[in-house]
Amino acid sequence: MAPTVTSVDASEPRVASIKTLADSDALTSVPSEYAYIMDPNDKGDANDPEHSIPVIDFALLTSASPDERAQMIQKLGKACQEWGFFQVINHGVPESLMKEMIDACQRFFELPEEEKKEFHTKNLLDPIKCGTSFNVAIDKVRLWRDYLKVIAHPKFNSLYKPAGYSEVSLEFSKRTRAVATEILNGISESLGLEPDYIAKAMNWDRGCQILAANYYPACPQPDLAIGIPPHTDHGLVTLLIQNDMCGLEVKHNDQWVLVNAAPGAFIVNYKSIWHRATVNNIATRISIAVPHGPALDTPALPIPVLLEKEGEKAKYIGMTYEKFMELQASPAAYMMPCLDHLRVKDN
């Protein structure tokens, strides 16, 4: 059952951020322009162990023992095939650094609105941008979410405020990129390819890395609002961390699964799997998603050697990463999943 949304009334006052709205003493209910009615039977379940995302041990994935590495690559391939989401433990990125990154983003969101205005932009690939909702020009319903997006690779960009953000984000982006690279190599091997096959094909050395922080304040009526509606990501490998509040739900076997990650783990999204961000009425949730994609001018195409091996024809046309990101941000993304636009049409 599709969610019910209200039409956005242009006469209603617009707020600069969801934080401004949530901090208002007068807020007791969800304004109509944010109303997103979810099917009561379409809620996530975090209690069933049969619906827990797989766990990948990074230490074994990068082990010097061929047997240990082979076993973990096989497990990684199965996780990608059956889930598209998994969590990575023992990855070597200090938990203290992950917390510092979340704290730095929280300090940004807590800046006065006037100080954040200089980063408001409508351009998709501006090095630094912040805003609210998703795209207020085309949104069918406004989202209970503010965001900050900073491109960290191939050229590192950063904020000069709040204090300490630049140093923390530089270290965090380097460490997460190293983890993402090893995961991509493992995925490549799980497909029977050379470890660096996908990286070379996608010009990984010039690949795009984005630090995308999301701010979801407590909501007085969480069943009547949404942080981010069902969507798929555009990167090759997306790593995500969050504060102590859960909210990420993944669709698996037609059921929404609330993701409970182990402390200090990365939640990883590899395949175009539907997921969403829900909100709560208890405390603010902050997540930081780090999509790692190809170089912007590189087209993603079906891998010829795998097509030959399976005796299959390509089911998707190619498109550069930049064009795919533009497609995802366009009204067309509301009509159907982005990948459906790239399906090869049957004659």
Straight-line N-to-C gap: 31 Å
Q: How many domain modules?
A: 1
Shape call: globular
**CATH architectural arrangement:** Sandwich
Task: Determine and state the CATH class.
Answer: Mainly Beta
CATH topology: Jelly Rolls
Distinct helical segment count? 10
Low-confidence residue ranges: 1-13
Beta-strand share of residues = 15-25%
**Assembly annotation:** single chain
- Secondary-structure-based class equals alpha+beta
Tell me the CATH superfamily: B-lactam Antibiotic, Isopenicillin N Synthase, Chain
Strand order of the largest sheet: 3-4-12-9-14-7-6-5
Total number of beta strands: 16
Using only CA atoms, what is the Rg?
20 Å
In short:
Helix content is 27%, strand content 20%.
Describe the protein in words.
With about 350 residues, this protein is α+β, with helices and mostly antiparallel strands. The protein has one domain (about 15-300): Jelly Rolls (Sandwich). The chain has helices at about 20, 60, 65-80, 95-110, 115, 165-190, 195-200, 305-310, 320-330, 330-335; strands at about 5, 35, 55, 85-90, 130, 145-155, 210-215, 230, 235-240, 250, 255-260, 265-270, 275, 285-290, 300, 320. The strands form 4 sheets. The protein has an 8-stranded mixed sheet. A 4-stranded antiparallel sheet has the order 8-13-10-11, with no helix packed on it. Strands 1-2 form a two-stranded antiparallel sheet. Helix 3 (about 65-80) packs across helix 6 (about 165-190) and helix 4 (about 95-110) crosses helix 6 (about 165-190). The longest helix has 26 residues, at about 165-190. It is globular. The two termini are about 30 Å apart. The relative contact order is 0.16. Residues about 1-15 have low confidence and may be disordered. It holds the Pfam family DIOX_N.
